Amino acid sequence: MNPHLNKAIKFMILLPMSQATIANADVETKYVGNVKNNVASDAINVASSDGNVAAPPVIDSNDNQVQTVEVKGLEEAIGFRAVRANIKITKEDITYYPPGVSADKVLERVSGIQQGSSNAFGGSTFDSTINMRGFEKDSIGFSVDGIPNGRTTLGGGSVPSRYFDSSNLTSVQVSQSAGEIGAPTNQALAGQINYLTADPSNIFGINAEVGYGSAETKRAYVLFNTGELAPGLKAYISASRNLSQVSYVINPSGTNTLNHVDFKAVKEFDNGADLKFRYSYNDINERSAANVVTLNSFNSNPNVDGYTDSWSKNPKTDVNYRAFYGNPRTDKMAYISGTLPLPYNILLDIKAYNAHQDGAGKFANLGNTYTALNGLTNSIYYRENDYYTNRNGLLAELSGSDGNYFAWRIGGWVEKYQANQERNFYLLTNPVQNQDYSSISSLTSSNLHWHDKTKLFYAANTSKFMDGQLQINYGVTYLQNSVDFNAPIYSNTASKISSNKFNYINQANANSGILPKFGALYSINPTVQIFTGFSKNAASISDPTVQANAAPATTPGIPISQMDTTKAWDLGIRKKGSQYSIGLQSFIIHAEQTFASDIATTLTKLNIPEGRNVKGVEVNYKQGIGNWSLYVAGTVQQCKYNLSGVDGSGNPSAGFIRNNSDCVGIANKNLFSEVSYQPSSALKLAGTVKVKSSMAGYYANPNAVNSGVDETVSGVTLLGLNMSYRTSIHTFGINVENLTNKHYISGIAPELESSSSASGRYFIGAPRTFYVWYKVGI
User: Fold this and answer.
1) How far apart, in whole angstroms, are the C-alpha atoms of residue 344 and residue 399?
2) Tens-place pLDDT, residues 464-478
């Protein structure tokens, strides 16, 4: 070996990390001196401790000490070593964002994902949208620490970001192909997202955060780390409070309050076993609700949304008072998990959990809206959709390995789920001061109940060939689902009077059959890999789908026996170098789904068969240049509806989406890019560019007169800035989102896809938003 190269390698291995190195930063700064500048290029193959390739030292012409930058997260940025399409959002990536950012927001960094919200830093309620590879968020699987999240269906759905404080988030694992064998979820047709929370530290400590920004945004957070209480036992507890208002409205009424508590304890045993317990409590009181708008009203004035923000004492105006609306709720989740080594190199993993939600969807009506309320035409009635869900589940997995050909896993998941929804109307008595309403319901228009059982079984194995150069992962899953639906009070007419209320019932009992999943990874050399994969995916029966087929108990509905399915193919190539990594992957997805469409003037629904074909290309790139770092994630895709039973113009007999037309709410192109500059170990500057092309909006119903016109939502380019300065225990920062103050539509409500009467269901994006923050850790 070249003696200069040998000297350089030894020096780099022995050199301790500078004390000025920033923990959890995107780059590490190292100083290398007195090394000749003729170091051979072989140095790029020296692996660093985190698995990235170490950079060769940079030497000036006088052999002086030169600062070099080692870019972290090169492998995670492209999913290096993953058999399938896979991206990891690391703790270093998350540090770009301010304290309290929604976990939804950080998903913008992943190719194939389009994220939007009326809040500049993401949301966890009605106005948050996530699309992946041509599918909405109710077709994406979500989990927290491997615990299944439940369905994200609008209304009483479960949103994963409510189950942890984002300051306790350590990484996000994203599999765009949904090919992960055994991932527990009800709805992973397009992909799987797993949020991982941090474990407690071995050292006692206290972390605190405060923040203040536009739209009266305020945050306070504190975390207590116990350190090691006993051998192998440690824990933490955190509490936070967040306040905000609707951002795009001038002087909106009300304030949204979010209180959150996380607790986690870990016990590690000498034999390698561990035991974990985690509990999360989330309470949202929403009194500054975001609304949906029509495209015409947005183009006329992007700072209004149809709600009013002052009390006029005119019921016809005050029925739109913002503080009446919103989705207040309480979310709780607890789990206990354990890992136990067994004889013969076998490992047993078990998780048991409970997730519970109580919430409401708020609305207001004038008394004459419903026949039963006639005579009170000048009174405002408050409508409340009360949601209740309770999920209990158990997961178990056995895994082991024996040589190159067997690295196996077998496991299962069982969950019981109960959900209730009740719609009541109350007379408002003192809405300005206390939002009081009478304790006795004047009308109950629906009372819905679901009892759901889900079972998942899987088996997988990974085999290595050619000294590990070729890896093949293969396996099968089997999903079984049954649902009982009962609605003792259910109205099928506009008047909703008692004589038109029936007891509606229905059932679903379906299984996926055997779902094959295959992935292969071939390493051309230590820095270049190609991969390919195929997976057939299925989703359990959604609550609205069972509801849509319901009928009065005297004439039971048609039981559901088919699951939504997709077939997904991936092909890609990855390359990593000393200071860069790049991944290019293509995908094709064919889906067969059922959507529950609202029937105008009733509370009932109609199931509409739908298919879609999606294909596209994704690129991920990360580069270090001196003190600079660049990250890019981009997607070009095409999503088209594929319908059967259409007429000569491609129009279905029911619903309004059209054969071979663009999928509603899915942009064909999107790009996220971050450029960061770190002139010292303390100071970091960064900027982002987020680009989304135009997308299909509302399609006029071809079978209904005066149903509107076809609409297209314009694309947008958003710029962001970040600056942070860190000392030994303090960090100060400022973030600016939507720097140029663009007016734009952030997303489309899902009803646009399934309801012929839902024209004008768009969310307004956040304007320019400033946020300053401070962190301290002792």
Assistant:
1) 11
2) 999 999 999 999 999
